[in-house]
Amino acid sequence: MKPPRLQKGNKIAIVSPASAVAAYVPRRLARGIATLEKMGFEVVLMPNATAVHSHTAGTIGERL
To answer: Are 33 and 64 within 8 A, CB to CB?
Structure first.
């Protein structure tokens, strides 16, 4: 099964379920968000996307 194709106006959430790499490259993250917005999507940056806890993107609870 394939889900329906994304349409302009759809919401895309940015999450980091494992690595904290987004926190270390904020300009690259901003460029990615800007590109998605330019394509017509609504972008939501989840709180853990830029969190850092040791080598992961936040604590286990935050990532869940």
So the answer is: no
Collapsing DSSP states into helix, strand and coil, what is residue 7?
Answer: coil
> What does the chain come to in residues?
64
Q: Where are the domains of the chain?
A: 11-63
Q: How far is CA 49 from CA 4, 18, 38, in A?
A: 26, 9, 20
Supply the pLDDT for residue 63: 67
Secondary structure element (H or E) that encloses residue 12, with its range: strand 11-14
H or E stretch at 14: strand 11-14
Per-residue pLDDT band for 9 (boundaries 50, 70, 90) equals: very high
